[in-house]
Amino acid sequence: MENSEQRRPRINLTRTLPKQNAYTLALDNEYREYAFNEERAPLNKGKWRSEVFKCDDSKPVDVEVGTGAGMHFAHYANKHPNRNVVGLELKYKPLIQSIRRAQALGARNSAICRYHAFNIDLLFEKNEINNIFIHFPDPWVTPRKPKNRVVNRNILDALYDMQREGSFLEFKTDSREYFLWALDEIKESKYKVEFQTLNLYQEGGKYFEQNFQTTFEKIFTRQGIEINYIKLLK
Ligand SMILES: C[S@@+](CC[C@H](N)C(=O)[O-])C[C@H]1O[C@@H](n2cnc3c(N)ncnc32)[C@H](O)[C@@H]1O
User: Fold this and answer.
1) Counting CB atoms within 10 angstroms of each CB, which of 41, 67, 167, 180 has the fewest?
2) Which residue lies with its CA nearest to atom 5 of ligand 1?
3) Which atom of ligand 1 is the closest one to the Cα of 88?
């Protein structure tokens, strides 16, 4: 993947931070078993079921990119005890909030990584994961930097290869500009579109009925902004 190699972003190492705080400490201590910093996370590649979740190969491992404070992440983990979910988040505070919230009820089917979404192929083997959720990723509209958008053709190719047959990818955004741009990227990918709408709340039907409102989604819908939604199938 020459392109993604060129675009491989580097993030700072938690270990070398000049000053630790409650969140960075929780990541490497209290939640160490289920929260992985940028150095420990890729060691789980190919071993999420056997080493982290200690489950059969048949148990699904889903992925949420950019969990934020983890409302959907925790809801999903607790609603689906027969599945596992791995979150990716860059910022320490939402990362710890996400794993704390998800594990508060005692379930141990969730894990979180401090990892850049553009490097997700370093976290999972081909055919290792099931469903993927990308909810309200940073739109990079101001400043307009489409190359920084997570739903792009290179990442879509990588995600497709990592997913097992029959899995889905769900993408929601408040940004019409990002969504229309992403539709062109999606056309270049191998995914089939199961459903798409520019207005989930008016035209979403069963997808709206099953929808879980994320933290950012609540803010946008209160402002009357239409929610763009697409569900892709492998
Ligand atoms: C706009 S928030 C949305 C949070 C949540 N999904 C929601 O809908 O409420 C985007 C989140 O993605 C995280 N993020 C941004 N770029 C990322 C990247 N490249 N890799 C992983 N997480 C990222 C941010 O730190 C932030 O928490």
Assistant:
1) 180
2) 68
3) 21
d(CA 12, CA 10): 7
Catalytic residue from among 62, 138, 161, 174: 138
No. of helices (H) and no. of strands (E), the chain: 9, 8
From 65, 89, 147, the mutation candidate for ligand 1 (largest count of ligand atoms within 8 A of CB) is 89
55 three-state secondary structure: coil
CA-nearest residue, atom 13 of ligand 1: 66
pLDDT tens readout for residues 16-60: 999 999 999 999 999 999 999 999 999 999 999 999 999 999 999
In angstroms, how far is the first alpha carbon of the chain from the final one?
20
**Low-confidence residues of the chain: pLDDT under 70:** 1-7
Among 143, 142, 166, 171, which Cα is nearest to 156's? 171
Class of domain 4-233: alpha beta
CA atoms within 13 A on the CB side of 196: 16
Which helix (H) or strand (E) segment is 163 a member of?
Answer: none
Return the ∠ at Cα 210 (arms to 193 and 105), rounded to 5°: 120
CA 159–ligand 1 middle distance (angstroms) = 17
Q: Is 138 a catalytic residue?
A: yes
pTM above 0.90, yes or no: yes
Residue to probe by mutation, ligand 1, list 12, 38, 67, most atoms within 8 Å of CB: 67
